[in-house]
Fold this protein.
Amino acid sequence: MEVRESVRIHGQLRDPRSPAGKASLYYKLPKVHPMRGRKIRHSTTFALGLLIGAFVALVFNIAGSLTVMQSTMVSSYVGIRLFRGFFIVFLHIILMGINVYGWRRAGVNHVLVFQVNPRDNLNYQSLMTVGMGLLVLWAVSAVGYIYAPLFGASQIQFPALMGTVVFIFTFIPMSQPSSIMIMSSRRWMIRHFFRCITAPFHRVRFADFWFADQMTSLAVVWLDFSYFVCFFTLDA
């Protein structure tokens, strides 16, 4: 019975007149090379490579410095809670870029599935560049957090500065420079975030469900963000 059911479903998917076949055609594109589609600039590729190199160097710096500066740092628990949530989110953006690469490679029309602006959307390299740039910001803030006691500076100003930059980058309605601010993608993220919060009051679409699933998977991030806000509003 299972074999017959599989054959029947496969036949429906291949039949363009059936509902399943129409849906399959609706959400599929011909297989294309991932470099095709929206043109990828050489400057984006160069920036991605440069940011990867900078992040690797900063990570080695952080790893080597932690053993030396441990005695002069604020509680390691505080540092982990202030930086962990941002790191997970930035890494998630890079992994989304890898997902987009896979979807593009498999011919999945992710632009249509997720209701993204077909004329202005990020390719996989742009997503990875944004995520890697934010990771470099995170690493620079972590280095400043570690070395702040040597210069008589407050350690907590570095995660505060990082959070401020991320907030501005996410919510300030600036569209220029377009290669950095990426207004359409930020608007898509904010719109679906609020649609997830207000889900009981309107029809939930697939993109909303998918976005809510991502937020559910990042439960530890919400705990760290709540700690971040409480720390700077009550304890700092």
Residues 1-13, 29-38 have pLDDT under 50 and may be disordered. The longest helix spans residues 76-106. The chain has one domain: 38-70+81-235.
